[in-house]
Amino acid sequence: MEKKRILKNGMPLYSYRTEGTHSFMISLYLRCGSLHESESESGVCHFLEHLSIRNINYLLDGEAYRLLDKHGLDFNATTSTDMVQFYISGAPKNFRIAAEIFSRLLSPIQLPAGEVESERQRIRAEIRESDERSSLDSFAMSSAFPDSSLSRFITGTSGSISKMSRRYIERYRRSVFTADNLFLYLTGAFSEEDLDTLDELFGRGELYEGEKKETVAPVPREFGKRGGAIYRKNGESCKVRLTFDIDVARHGQILSEQVYKILLGGYSSELFLELSEKRGLIYDLDGGSAVYKNIGYIYLTFEVTPSRLEQALRCALGVLSRMKNELLPTDRLMLAAHTDNEAMLLDDPRDLNFTMAYDNHFLGLGFPDIESRARAYSSVTAEDVRDFSRTVFTRDNLTVAIKCGRKTDVGILSGLIDELL
After folding, report:
1. Domain of 407: which CATH number?
2. Which of 15, 169, 225, 291 has the fewest CB atoms within 10 Å, counting from its CB?
């Protein structure tokens, strides 16, 4: 069961002990990400993530990685659209040294200018080496969410990060290192003494005043009024992405995620079975969903030969059409992964840590334990899925992005959308 403790400095500490595990995981979560950044701030959270880790190594006289290796500790971080997660994990006997290293995240950025510039160059290399900017997904997001933080890159741009000094990053750090915007989450094998250790080490860290950042996405004017808009980009291959708007405030996060699972969550998912296993139109397909407190989207991406484009689209849209008109049998609701030990979360402190932290403290779902989360998923019915499909899988919610050769006729898309949705 999740427990809450307020540290001496006002920072929340959540913990979820799991019996039978042999490691711990401590995470520090920040409510910041590209979702909350202005265009001029683009990439600042990701830059802060990098500098924070580099700063720890600097404060430890360059010995951080040696210490981590000596004690078998895994220390890293990740930035997403709406959060930064720092985490450290290891064997319970090394909890104290892990917490001592990790607590230095609350220290001001003290890096010399040369160290900041070195990290800036690393991020520029990351941006350069990534093919994200030329991808169909990037084109689709900029088409569906123009001039929105939803379509900005987590890493920012070379231009935006070039203007960020150490002083700028430190000022931003103070705006998000507040009692409302950061918290600790501890999972796995730990003792009451370990909780006291976190209070001792993190409780003396300085927090600042700042506005709480909510997991709420900006809503574009065209949201829910897309009209099946088709955006084309020239390319050698033929690749398609279908993106549907979701009114999460109406449907809820659980149902939205479950429908994604039914459509794209594995080898028995509806779209994989139809497009790949049964018809061999594709080998694999990609997809995902983003769910915030207010809105979200679900998308499907696949590559196909130009001659089979119409057949593949008819097949994909046909699956969605059937979901609008038929009730799926219970065994096709894909519930087991969420209801039988919650995809093995109780055996995995890392996944449990992120899942409970994000569901409860970013989305505000308030699950006291994994069993409550499992019950929420098990309550999803075939009628719920059909009603969701009828509301979401419509022309008004659909944006199509296609990357193909100039000779490929995309005129068929609009007719198929009218016919099947």
Report:
1. 3.30.830.10
2. 225
